[in-house]
Amino acid sequence: MSSAVIALLLFVGSARAEDGHSLWMRYVPVEPVLAATYRAQLSDIVAPDATPTQRAARAELERGLAGLLGKSPRMHADASRYSVILGTPRSSNVIAALHGEIDALGQDGYVLKRVQHDGRSVLVVAGQRDIGVLYGVFHLLRLLQTGAALDRLDVHESPPVPLRVLDHWDNLDGHVERGYAGRSLWDWQSLPEWKDPRYTDYARANASLGINGTVLNNVNASAWSLAPAYIEKTAALAEVFRPYGIRVFLSARFSAPIELGGLKTADPLDPAVQRWWRDRVADIYARIPDFGGFLVKANSEGQPGPQDYGRSHADGANLLADALAPHGGVVMWRAFVYAHDVPADRATQAYTEFAGLDGAFHPNVIVQVKNGPIDFQPREPFHPLFGAMPRTPLMLEFQLTKEYLGFATHLVYLGPLFEEVLRADTRRHGAGPTVAETLAGIAGVANIGSDRTWTGSHFDQANWYAFGRLAWNPQASARDIAADWAAMTFSPDPAVVQPIVGMMMGSREAAVNYMTPLGLHHLMARGHHYGPGPWVDGGPRADWTSVYYHRADRDGIGFDRTASGSNAVAQYSPDVAATYADVAKVPEPLLLWFHHVPWDHRMPSGRTLWDELVSRYSLGVRQVKAMQATWATLAPPPANADAPASATEPAPVTEPALATERSPVERGSAPLTGSIDPQRHAQVAAYLQIQLREAQWWRDASIAYFQSISGRPLPPGEPAPPHPLAYYEALQFPSAPGDGR
Ligand code: BDP
Q1: Domain range spanning residue 509?
Q2: Residue nearest to atom 3 of ligand 1 (CA)
Q3: Among the four 30, 226, 276, 287, which has the fewest Cβ within 10 Å?
Q4: CA 665–ligand 1 middle distance (angstroms)
Q5: What angle do CA 439, 444, 449 make, to 5 degrees?
């Protein structure tokens, strides 16, 4: 083939639409010099193909190498000359020789290393089980996608947290509660016959991160998901996911014995109820032998539960645990509980109800605790139950879907939030355990739906990605993960990766600043949580209002959670409590979470609290502008010099760092140095414009409101909100997406 034809083919290949659908598994050609090196290192591959997981590993590697290197490797089930061996100690003698180090990595672990065999250097991708091999293949592909050298590989990976799951808040009718990425991915209507190829891609994406469980339906559950017809459909999904090491779980409605079984009660101590669950669970396992178990939201926000019968959370959890135990299933019992008729600070209620139950749960119960004591806010302290239930397996629940962080249209990378929580020391600095070290499981409320991008925006893919990587290795760095993601999603070119990582790493703090600075929380509009609502008051329950949380008055602002207030600090271990309780020692980002502070309070910056608050709101807006400016530098060169600039794209503040002129062949299909493909660039630019508009709205509305309470002048240079407070209060968005129902 002439080089001109090759050039044309590559060029045509590169012209395919970049709509984000391939996630971080784009497998576009790497730079030619690197490709040549990789091709030589990965020419002949021995990979068993006897099991579905082995076939998945093999297929992924073939697909990845074909895309990345422009040439399929030679794959063999057995061969004498090879450069790569995939497998387990059972499938290969070369790997059997490594069984000691492989066994040490546990059931999900893997090694990627060079060994000498017959005088040759061979790359081994091996695990104790096939699933480890698949994880290793994805690791290898990540190394290729990010341009890493393969000559001295010696990777040993083993996840410390055994259960790594996504929780889908998907209703059976396709509505996703708090979903901003379209409808549910699960098409219950066409299941079980039609298995949409997207289900396989979903499984691939999760396996690429080591996610090994998925809860298919909303925690505000319909009993119907346990009905036989739906179990058939769930079984079909389980079949698709099984080769990728993903077990399915279902959210179980506690009152299902009444609604589905026709019983008069769901009392956990009633023998008929116990029998109903045992039989139902046995039916499920008959169809899904590796069913994972149940997730349960009980006696929380109106859901039925054991307390309806005067029983405890442990009674309720143990009922289901006993039904699941003979089959190897677990119950993930949520600690997200608070009652409107309890006057205690909502932040204290989960601990109050659960800490005393430590030791009362049966062994296959895992208590699932949100990362903070309120509800997935832009910033919360870690939940006081972490470290407080040493005899109970705990799992941490994060929210990937950004209910309280600007939905899918705000660029907010959650890696730093995850990292902050996982690394929090539950005792005192350095004494541990950290939150991560207390975990038996980790869950992320999924941000995935039918949208072409899967997550409703290009950058929200990074939150799925970072969740999975941190679930696998809670000690990993959010920054390194962002760099891998940016390289795989956009381009490994450092001129692309570096600015994107900079945007991502600052983005969460920007959102904190323009929404809820200095420890403020839960100030979003009522119900749908879209936009600011610091004035929200009244309604069915005080703990669903903003005024309950900020407690601003003429003298100051913030929730006193010290001994003079709700004393929520006392739920932390003594040294942590002492730090949080002291207004001089509490970390500034949590000041108003724990303290009611006078407006004149002197902040570390030298400003008064009032001036600091206003300046934080403005800073948040400027941080979004800075993201826009950075993104503008990554704009693709215009298709031709006369083409009009896109109206949605902000003007670049500096000249784009354009590549030296190179032919399409020389640059593979990667974009020109320092630029992003037009399709994705334009959407991100438009979304940043939305984010700027809404950050400004948050700033103006919040300042208008808090000024009406503090009665203080704005600091010099701070522009007054363009509208009176009444204007912001009157704004209504009855159709905002994702609302619960
Ligand atoms: C809140 C959501 C609500 C969920 C609830 C939960 O607003 O839709 O049902 O959490 O976690 O954040 O159960």
Answers
A1: 492-559+596-741
A2: 740
A3: 287
A4: 50
A5: 165
For 686-707, the DSSP string reads HHHHHHHHHHHHHHHHHHHHHH
Residues 147 and 182 in one domain: no
Distance CA 560, CA 143 (A): 49
Q: Is 297 in the pocket of ligand 1 (CB under 6 A)?
A: yes
Give me 572's structure tokens: 């932390």
Both 146 and 188 in one domain: the answer is: no
Q: Which CATH number fits the domain that encloses residue 85? A: 3.30.379.10
Closest C-alpha residue for ligand 1 atom 1: 375
Contact of 371 with 380, CB cutoff 8 Å: yes
Pocket test for ligand 1, best of 219, 396, 400 (most atoms within 8 A of CB): 219
The string of pLDDT tens digits covering residues 428-439 is 767 789 999 999
Q: How many domains does the chain have?
A: 3
408 and 294 housed in the same domain: yes
Residue that the structure tokens 């083409």 belong to = 643
CATH at 337 = 3.20.20.80
How far is residue 220's CA from residue 697's CA, in Å, rounded to a whole number?
A: 32
527 and 463, same structural domain? no
pLDDT of residue 661: 33
Q: Among residues 450, 367, 418, 425, which one has the least CA distance to residue 185?
A: 450
Q: Are residues 153 and 198 both part of a single domain?
A: no
pTM given for the model: 0.94
Residue matched to tokens 């050039």 = 7
Same domain? For 135 and 227 the reply is no
Nearest CA to ligand 1 atom 10: 375
The CA-based angle 511-512-516, given to 5 degrees, is 120
User: Closest ligand 1 atom to the C-alpha of 445?
Assistant: 11
How many residues does the structure list for the chain?
Answer: 741
Question: Does 328 share its domain with 429?
Answer: yes
Any ligand 1 atom below 6 A from CB of 544: no
Token pair listed for 171: 């209703």
H/E element, 556: strand 556-557
Beta strands at 74-76 and 44-46: parallel, antiparallel or unpaired: parallel
- Which atom of ligand 1 sits closest to the CA of residue 300? 13
**In this structure, which residue's CA is closest to atom 12 in ligand 1?**
375
- Catalytic residue numbers read 301, 375, 403
Backbone angles phi, psi at 41, to 5 degrees: -80, -20
Whole-number pLDDT of residue 339: 83
Mean pLDDT taken over the chain: 93
Using one digit for the tens of pLDDT, what is the confidence trace for 487-540? 999 999 999 999 999 999 999 999 999 999 999 999 999 999 999 999 999 998
- C-alpha dihedral (633, 639, 644, 650), degrees to nearest 10: -20
